[in-house]
Amino acid sequence: MTTPPLHVRFLKTTYRLVVDNFLAVVAVAAAVAVLQRTSPEEVLARARVIRPAHWLLALLLAAAVAKLWRMGRPKDVYLVEYGCFRPKPCFRAPFATCREHAHLMPYLVDEDSVSFAIRLLERSGLGEETCVPEAYHYMPPDRSLEASREETELVIFSAVDEVFARSTLRPEDIDVLIVNCSIFTPTPVFADMVVNRYGLRPDLQNVNLSGMGCSAGLVSVGLAKNLLQVARPGTHVLIVSTEILSSQYYVGTERAMLLPNCLFRMGASAMVLSNSPERARYRLTRAVRTVTAARDADYRCVFQEEDDKGITGIRLSKDLATTAGHALKSNIAAFGPLVLPASEQLLVALSFLKRKLLSGRAKVRLYRPDFRTAFDHFCIHAGGRAVIDEVQQGLGLSDDDAEASRMTLHRFGNTSSSSVFYELAYLEAKGMMNKGDRVWMISFGAGFDCNSVAWECVKPAADTDGPWVDCIHRYPVQLPEIAKDI
Asked: Where does the Beta-ketoacyl-[acyl-carrier-protein] synthase III C-terminal domain start and stop, copy by copy (predicted)?
């Protein structure tokens, strides 16, 4: 992105300072005007006339109004700590291994499908260190229930262990448990698996979400927010987000259904949210969800079904990136007014007015708000190179703004609903996060869903431990240029 001239930047800065602080400017101007007409001695004389009882009554009234305002506003929600599953090197799936395995399974996948999958993988933005579950390393892949349970226990328990290790919380401190996984849903459900492993309290409230795809992690955050705002002070919610791949490996030849095999990788995140600021790392400021399932094209954009040979898989539409862009626009319409400063909202309003007044006489483009005036960091769901490109272009972000998303896709692949927390971990591991910084998380999922969650940093990470601990020194990396993404 080109840097505007110095005088343009000066005018923009002045405009934002004046508009964003309009009330303060008016108050200062009014105070100056009053002081010019009234001497300080006259002000003090008028203050002495007021009886002490009246001063006391005014103070009590102000305190009562402040108390009522605090009682009426929703409770603040905080992120106490989070952790991500860090796969071992033995789970790596470099391109050469993928190519070799594909050729060793000719009765499952034909040569054209192999060539397509390898081309897609090379252009996907994934690197050589992304990991798949142990079941994928067998030939043919182990799609059994037992393999899926083993993957589940590995990724979920590792993430939960990490979040407990990084905080001073114990399992008995958890009041609510929310677990989300889209495709694989065994009986008993994942939530009961976590309760059994950690011996959580019998009065625990637990929820298991499925079928929501990559957006389920932020859907869980929104659900936790609603619960915490009506719960007793000091309530803790444990959220676990994952996608289990073992039983979902597609062994057919439909190209649209081969995409998940190429893009999705193993991963999980766990986090603890609370309505108490004690030990908080981030404060949740906004959470907005948009569902576009009323449109048939959006509803079938990510669709589980059988191919013409009866093989079950997930079909990803070729219009996935475009659908994500449309869903993001609808989401921004609701999210933008809640987070954008007054200066940006005024420019949007003026562009709407201009289009209305010049309707039929001239084509007026609506002003695209600059969300960098509201946020310092962006965590765009690492759903694929095309998805990140679409969001970056739609929001007018720089390559630096999309760095965390692209590097997460390169190192870990598409880890579904947990990807945005790998991106948050990247920002902290690089030392980019400071107290007071604002973060916008954006996720997309089946349905079609778009979710936006805004955080404010209360306390940056004290260390760089986490999923990036053994590789952060190598990032960012230069990604190969692709003329047109698949």
From this structure: 375-456
- Tokens read off for 484: 């047109």
CA end-to-end distance (rounded Å), the chain: 24
pLDDT of residue 258: 86
Tokens of 195: 């309760």
Torsion angle of the four alpha carbons 462, 463, 464, 466, in this order, in degrees rounded to the nearest 10: -90
Instruction: Please give the radius of gyration of the chain, using alpha carbons only, rounded to the nearest integer.
Output: 26
Q: Which amino acid is at 115?
A: S
The helix or strand, by DSSP H or E, that contains position 441, with its residue range, turns out to be: strand 438-445
Domain ranges within the chain, ordered by starting residue:
32-72, 77-474
| Rounded alpha-carbon distances, angstroms, from residue 136 to 24, 87, 149, 415 | 61, 14, 14, 15
What residue has token string 């990136």? 321
Structure tokens at 76: 């603040």
Question: For residues 437 and 23, what is the distance between their CA atoms, to the nearest angstrom?
Answer: 24
- Total count of residues recorded for the chain: 486
* Residue entry with tokens 């960012």: 476
Instruction: Judge contact between 214 and 445, C-beta under 8 A.
Output: yes
CATH architecture of 77-474: 3-Layer(aba) Sandwich (3.40)
d(CA 413, CA 462): 26
The encoded tokens of residue 446 equal 């089946």
Residue 363 φ/ψ, nearest 5 degrees:
-90, 115
- pTM for this structure? 0.88
Q: Which helix (H) or strand (E) holds 444?
A: strand 438-445
CB atoms closer than 10 angstroms to residue 38 = 11
